[in-house]
Amino acid sequence: MSFRSPDPTPEIIVWVENLAKQFVLHNQGAAILEVLRDVSLTLRSGDCLVLNGPSGAGKSSLLRCIYGNYKSDSGRIVVRHNGQPVDMVAATPREVLSVRRQTLGYVSQFLKVIPRVATIDVVAEPLRREGMEAGRARDNAATMLHRLNVPERLWKLAPATFSGGEQQRVNIARGFVSDYPVMLLDEPTSALDATNREEVIALVQEKLAAGAAVIGIFHDEDVRDRLATHLLNMAPLREAA
Ligand SMILES: Nc1ncnc2c1ncn2[C@@H]1O[C@H](COP(=O)(O)OP(=O)(O)OP(=O)(O)O)[C@@H](O)[C@H]1O
Ligand SMILES: [Mg+2]
Fold this sequence. Notes:
Elements lengths: L11 E14 L5 E14 L3 E5 L6 H9 L6 E8 L2 E4 L5 H10 L1 E4 L11 H11 L4 H14 L16 H13 L5 E5 L7 H16 L3 E5 L3 H7 L2 E4 L8
Parallel strand pairs: 3-8, 3-9, 6-7, 7-8
Antiparallel strand pairs: 1-2, 1-4, 4-5
Helix pairs in contact: 3-4, 3-5
C-alpha cells in the first residue's frame, strides 16, 4: 500500500519527501549511478539548512533537483509559491520558471557569464524581470556591488574577464539583489577572502531575519557553524547490491 502525506502546513515553505535521483551514464554502457535515495527535509521561515557531507555526496545534485535543473526519479519537492504548494517534480516547465522568478533564488558556485552584458545589468536583471524600473534596479544593484567590494570601475564591463573571486561576488550580488522567500546557495564563499566572506554571512543573516529560508552548502566550517540552524548529513551511496 502506498501512503502519501497530506500537503504541508502553511508554515512549511519547502518540503522534500523520499526524493530519489540516479544518473544513467549513456556513454558508459548505460551504467547507473545512484546519487540520492530517500532524502526528506522540511524548511520553515528563518531556517538555514546546511547540506553536509564529503565530495560526491550529492549536495549540489539535491539543490539542482529542488531548483528543477535535474529531474528527480521519485518523491516530492513541494515549494510554497504565492501561498500555494507546487510540486517541482510534477510541475510543468512554465510553472518551474514562475517558481524560479518569484520564489526560489539560486546562487551557483560559478557565474554563468552572459557575453557583452555589463556587470551592473547582470546584477540588476532579476529586478528588471520582476518589473522594477531600470534606474531603481541599477541603484539596488549598485548597493549590492558596493557591499561585495566590486570596484566601480568594473561595473560597466562584462564579467567574462574578471577573476574567479570577482565573478563569484557578481554572482552573489545577482542572487541576493531580489527578495526570494527561499535561497539555494552552492558554496557561495569558496573563492572569497575573509572580508567578503563576512559580507556574505551578513547577507544570509539579513535574509533569514527577514523571514527567508536558506538551503546552503558551505565548504568553510566556520561559515557552516555560524549560519546553520539545521544540518542534513549526506554520504555517497554505495553500489546497489
Ligand atoms: N549531470 C550529471 N551526470 C552524471 N553524474 C552526475 C551529474 N551530476 C552529478 N553527478 C554525479 O553525482 C555525484 C554527486 O555529485 P554532486 O555534484 O551532487 O556532489 P557534491 O556533494 O556536490 O560534491 P562536491 O562537494 O564535490 O561539490 C557525483 O558522483 C557526480 O559525479
Ligand atoms: Mg557540489
